[in-house]
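Example 3.
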Amino acid sequence: GAGVSQSPSNKVTEKGKDVELRCDPISGHTALYWYRQRLGQGLEFLIYFQGNSAPDKSGLPSDRFSAERTGESVSTLTIQRTQQEDSAVYLCASSPALGAGGREQYFGPGTRLTVT
Amino acid sequence: SQQGEEDPQALSIQEGENATMNCSYKTSINNLQWYRQNSGRGLVHLILIRSNEREKHSGRLRVTLDTSKKSSSLLITASRAADTASYFCATASSGNTGKLIFGQGTTLQVKP
């Protein structure tokens, strides 16, 4: 079936505006993750959803960042009052239900956010 | 914070040569995974090695894991120009939530 999709692919916004990024996981995947990747850097974990459990928000850098997921479907990552340091590629990944020993993650193409 | 440290940061080799990348980590893990990223966008999963495994193969890839040294290596044999990409190791901690902590990556260039 289709892979993980993200929209928009690119977003340019002015400092201080709010932005909403969308992720459509692979159908049937119960786990969904958001990561941020600054230019030339590795991925920073932001937030993790697993089924109906409370999300792991431990990676969110500030209270300007929030995310929601309805059931096992679409997720949105919202950044309020954007700052220039928020400029990065935001990557979403999904994986099947966790089994013993863990599972691989399937990544979307990312949203490149530029804050001017 | 990043758990994985990768070495080298950049590697340039000729087609046909082997490429070795190393990853070190700090805490106990459930598994360690390697991913490839082309052109700074989506990552592709390459291989997963569990904490009770020492070596794993997939095609031209060989991954080793030494939990006593908290390190892993990725070997790409007989490299091709198409292998040019950034390679990241990522660890899933014990008490696994599935959350991955990524290293900074190794940029590999394979010259034709």
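Chain B touches chain A through 28 residues (CB under 8 Å). The radius of gyration of chain B is 13 Å.
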